[in-house]
Amino acid sequence: MNLELNISSKVPTNQSNSVPLLGLGVWKSRPKECYEAVQAALELGYRHIDTAAIYGNEKEVGAAIKDSGIKRTDIFLVTKLWNADQGYEEALKAIDVSLQKLGTDYVDMYLIHFPVSGKRKDSWKALEKSKMDGKAKSIGVSNFMVSHLEDLLKESSIVPAMNQVEYHPFLQDTSLKEYCQKKGILLEAYSPLAHGQKLEDERLTTLAKKYNKSNAQILIRWSLQSGNVVIPKSKNPTRIRENADVFGFTISPEDMIEITSWNENFRTCWDPTTVE
Description:
Blueprint: E1 10-12, E2 18-20, E3 24-25, H1 31-44, E4 48-50, H2 58-68, E5 76-81, H3 88-102, E6 109-112, H4 120-132, E7 139-142, H5 146-153, E8 162-166, H6 174-183, E9 186-190, H7 202-211, H8 215-225, E10 229-230, H9 237-244, H10 253-260
Parallel strand pairs: 3-4, 4-5, 5-6, 6-7, 7-8, 8-9, 9-10
Antiparallel strand pairs: 1-2
Helix pairs in contact: 1-2, 1-9, 2-3, 3-4, 7-8
């Protein structure tokens, strides 16, 4: 990964577009909070916004983008297909509902939110049609493990552009990451701060003091230097600014190795490894 990064840095997908390496996640952001968070992020230079049907704030995300005055084509917008809407016909209807709420004709990335057994293949076929129809520039998945990706690729004509999974120094599925790299699938790290549950780790605090950065900034920078797309979630404008201030320094190779040694399979979100 090129270390000369900035908030505008992008990485190409295996499909038709490129994704900004740093984005804003809006999970658990209530409507008004979400609107204000997206506005703040866009003012700070973020151009990648990640939402989902289940978050209940697609309308506010769309409104904030529209009111920002920034050209729609300059923003990378992601939303996701919820579990209850999986299946071919259901998924086709769901993306139309999401587009209506977002107030846009297309999203830059549409993801299957979770690998629901018995339905994910039909859902993927619907995503392929949505891409062909121009409703999604790129399509991908979230929370897919290697077995789910292998199962999907047996019958798919399109390789997912992205796999959005929980990923941070304390949860590193290296076999999944290597598989994604081999297939040309971008790995996007959600919950890169482990929901704050490891922010007081003494090793992390020591490195933060060394670089004169916050503990959160070290975690985000580590993920960027590891080659991940990163979407830290926040509804606090000060934190949104802090999370973006990760481009003026570089973690040394030795410290990158040190952080990478912290894996303990510490999962803070749902566990897709149990899904058939």
